[in-house]
Amino acid sequence: MERDSKQLHPIMLAGTGSDVGKSIICTALCRILWQDGYHPAPFKAQNMALNSYVTPEGLEIGRAQAVQAEAACIPCHTDMNPILLKPNSEHTTQVVMNGKPIGNRSAYEYFRKEGHEELRNAVHEAYDRLSRQYNPIIMEGAGSISEINLRDTDIVNMSMARHANADVILVADIDRGGVFASTYGSIMLQTPEDRNRIRGIIVNKFQGDIRLFAEGRRMMEDICGVPVLGVVPMFHDIYIDEEDSVELSQKRHSSTESKVQIAVVLMRHLSNFTDFDTLERDKRVNLFYTNNTHDIEKADIIILPGTKATLDDLLELRRNGVAQAILHAHHDGKTIVGICGGYQMLGQTVSDPDGIEGSISQLPGLGLLPIDTVMTAEKTTRRVEFEFEGEKCYGYEIHQGRSTTEKQILQESNCIGTYLHGFLDNAPVINYLLKNKATNTPQISPEEFKNMQYDLLADHVRKYVNINELYKIMGL
Active site includes 340? Predict the structure, then answer.
């Protein structure tokens, strides 16, 4: 039931720095507003991430905005993230505009003033289309709003807030230290016009007894002249898809002999690591990320994940001995799974005659699957429905390169390869992989699990953020 037909002001969650929790707070607010009867939509003008997603139209956006749209119970769309930057292996970034690649650029080329108006117009037009369809828009900034050297070319932070006439909520990370300086500095370094847009502060990632920050909260309000809307404790038992592959090497669960040991090969350009979240939560499994050859040979299942630089990462696997460890494990009867770039590596050869990825023109693959792959400029992005073990399943493709097979899933002996991200989110696939390796236990579907987590996140943020004050800021 719709709570109120009144048009609310858009708000932007801006940050004192990167990884302060803007995306998570945006996700929470999308779910809270939907719970309260509104029709919110997320928006981030420019995102830099290797973890991307495919819209229903077969176009590419950042994973964070897809998650936020899911929390808001709406289909994701490229207007929610019109510019996506995907770093390549050789100091360049692939620029994706409105869901399609428009070329590779160096950081200097991208951030120079000349030619930047095309990007600015694209994000403004996307926002305008979105704002006509949803109410309110929950905007997200990028990195720090106090990078004054980038002010003239900014299309994602305060310049975007000005275009949308949005109220800005500053998110600060207290866990990394220096929260007073970073908050005060972020506000004081704004122009007078932009400073007036900052209507509230959320202190995020607090650990310990929250009452100990009561005086700090009052002090922050005094020095910044902006109300603190909430102090949000760090949580460890709510699972939301992450945007960045931070500290993946630390994701090593307690190893027990009763669990199936799954090693995800830790590569330098690893992408779409959320492919393994469903497996990681399975109580039958101990999943970890590693490039340690001993760990790989001892694992029951080894997964080669997607990568933004297949040839570069394949060369590194040969240099560090991981490729040989995988072959030894396969010879010993262990299951090998390749997803996207990992699937390409399992073939006979990977070629890049046109230098799409970089300077490596060809490498032999691991030779476990009968395919050859040639990198192409054209990018495949689409959602896919497929059948596995007689059941309907779903996934999506995001890749460059063509392989010599029409099969969506290729199986040879104890080796499986596929271009499909989301392949391991399907219960029939997981049960097949764990068959004869683990005791079956009931598992809820990924969709049910995700909705439970969005509701838990909304409850958590409601408890510690003054939502009524936020509504007042938004014009209710």
Answer: yes
Nearest to 175 by CA among 70, 357, 21: 21
Domains and CATH numbers, the chain: 11-239+452-473 (3.40.50.300), 260-437 (3.40.50.880)
Give dist(CA 333, CA 301) in Å, integer. 10
Catalogue the E-assigned strands of 342-472: 349-351, 362-364, 372-388, 391-403, 409-412, 415-418
| Segment 273-329, tens digit of pLDDT | 899 999 999 999 999 999 999 999 999 999 999 999 999 999 999 999 999 999 999
Pairing, β 167-173 against β 137-140: unpaired
Residue carrying the six token digits 């630390």: 250
- In this prediction, residue 1 has a pLDDT band, given cuts at 50, 70 and 90, of very low
Query: What's the rounded Cα separation, in Å, for the pair 49 and 53?
Result: 11
Least Cα distance to 340 among 425, 243, 416 occurs for 416
Q: How far is CA 416 from CA 210, 273, 323, in A?
A: 49, 18, 16
Side-chain-side CA neighbours of residue 70 (13 Å): 23
Write out pLDDT tens, residues 63-97.
999 999 999 999 999 999 999 999 886 678 899 99
* Set 224, 340, 393, 415: catalytic member: 340
Check pLDDT > 90 for residue 170.
yes
Residue 55 one-letter amino acid: T
Would you call 269 a catalytic residue per the annotation? no
Cβ burial, residue 258 (10 Å; 0-12/13-18/19+): exposed
Q: What is the mean pLDDT of the chain?
A: 92
Model pLDDT, residue 450: 93
Q: Out of 77, 269, 330, 421, which one is annotated catalytic?
A: 421
